[in-house]
Amino acid sequence: MTTRDIVLLVDDAPASLGALCSELEAEGYTVLVARDGEAALAQIDLAVPDAILLDALMPGLDGFETCRRIKAQPAWAHVPVVFMTGLAETEHIVAGFGAGGVDYVVKPVRAQEVLARLATHVRNARAVRLAREAVDVGGMGVLVADARGRLAWRSPQAQVWLAEFFAAGDEACIAWLTAAGGEAERGGAEGRVLAARRLGEAGLGETMWLLRVRAAGEAPASRLATAALTPRETEVLSWIAKGKTNRDVAEILGMSPRTVNKHLEHVFEKLGVETRAAAAALASRELG
Q: Which residues contact 172 (CB under 8 A, 6 or more apart)?
């Protein structure tokens, strides 16, 4: 049986959106309704939806503050929030994005437009969630810092470690990473050590960091062990370490030299090296 995606619709006058509810249900969504921000938070606590359609202006807790509270909860932060608003002024649109919304639609809403936007955001959010969970399965955490010095994204495991090692909040973590250069360590309670390594650029002005926790007496993990190389990247690197050219590797692995070069670009970035020789030397030392 196929699981239906859940959409939470938050509006102080939900009866006015009856047609939208019908269209959503006809499209295969399960629709939950909340009349205000407090009720929405209580509803999410019971069942985390796949997407939220949120009225910007409501009595009591308005949509902007409701969205901020949703995004402040690690277990809910991945849920895409689309604002519904009769306000088309730039300041309100900016406020919605600033609160953590991913999109907005102007009332009166057009059902087909909402459906198209929802499908995209639900799909993207699911892909991100699966990627986060896959990273954490490997016993590591991932952070992404943006160009404005903020933590733009964190995996669930990273969130747990931030709470443990940075009681002062995200600002202390950003300051630590900024001063780190490429690698950093921070001691914590019970002899635990949080290690961070810069993986490279994740997007426009965004930097990705890989986190790992070890005991104080434990030797740091090798750079290859924490590089999160894909199986194909590992294969390419191992042959480069054996002195093979890109053309040789391409013939051995059945790919084009251009593809080999693209894999190597990713390897250099993940290992924090700039040259083929440096990557080969590191691989030779650690792979044997």
A: 166
* Total structural domains within the chain: 3
Cβ 32 vs Cβ 7: under 8 Å: yes
Q: With respect to residue 1, please indicate whether it lies within any of the assigned structural domains.
A: no
Q: Where are the beta strands (DSSP E) in the chain?
A: 6-10, 30-34, 51-55, 81-85, 103-106, 141-145, 151-154, 183-187, 192-203, 206-215
Q: Which domain holds residue 247?
A: 231-287
pLDDT tens-place values along the chain, 288 residues long? 346 889 999 998 877 788 889 999 999 899 999 999 999 999 999 888 999 999 988 888 999 999 999 998 877 888 999 998 876 677 778 888 889 999 988 888 888 999 999 988 888 887 676 566 555 545 678 888 887 788 877 888 888 899 999 988 888 999 999 888 778 889 988 889 998 888 766 656 778 788 888 887 766 556 666 666 777 888 888 888 888 888 888 888 888 888 888 888 888 887 777 778 878 777 776 655
The CATH number assigned to the domain holding 145 equals 3.30.450
